[in-house]
Specification:
It is extended and about 50 Å long. The relative contact order is 0.06. The termini are far apart. The protein contains 2 helices and no strands. About 50% of the residues lie in helices and about 0% in strands. It has one domain. The chain has about 70 residues and is mainly alpha-helical.
């Protein structure tokens, strides 16, 4: 039997960004649920997402966050 170990490295800045996002989402969802740790939200889109679409959306979200 051969076992392969795969290591995945996540950039520290990305982890910090995800942590901030998680905290913000918990604050926004507190009126709907008391347990955001186990909450699962699914989003479906009829459009196939492309890299430019995701990049453009990320830029828009960052601009929106800076305004608040």
């Amino acid at each position: 039997m051969v076992l392969f170990i795969r290591r995945i490295y996540i950039h520290k800045a990305f982890v910090q960004e995800l942590t901030q996002w998680k905290e913000k989402q918990a604050h926004l969802l507190v009126e709907f649920t008391d347990n955001t740790e186990n909450l699962q939200i699914f989003q479906d889109s009829p459009l196939q997402l492309t890299t430019p679409m995701v990049s453009n959306q990320k830029i828009k979200l960052k601009k929106e966050c800076l305004r608040h």
